[in-house]
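Q: Got a minute? One more chain.
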Amino acid sequence: FGMRAYSVVEAFAEDLKRENYTFADNMSVLLTHLSEVIRNNLPQLLSYKDMKALLERQDQEYRKLADEICTTHISYPGLQAVLKLLLAERVSIRNLHLIIEAIAEIAPHVRRTEQIVEHVRIRMAQQ
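A: Always. Here it is, folded:
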């Protein structure tokens, strides 16, 4: 978080709290840092296999829609590129069915991944 941190003996923790210092145990600091590293690198961590697994978890109708758009308008690697760009912008891909719908709306009309991502972002903001 861009703050200076010092490691102190646990016995001083209560004294620091009384003096209104922000205090976190070492494990919390480590987990926060690790979470931030993962968040910053999510686009590189989303493999093709992971993307396919995410699609498999969708309801049947959304799997069919993804298959349709990936065979007629955008490839599976293209879909992966869209998801990676969203992650790079720190946009959650948890609502994957909405992302698939948004891609289905725009993919017949545009080819550039950035334009598809722009449309997806707008649609997600409307929810």
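A: Residues 26-45 form the longest helix (20 residues).
Q: Perfect, thanks.
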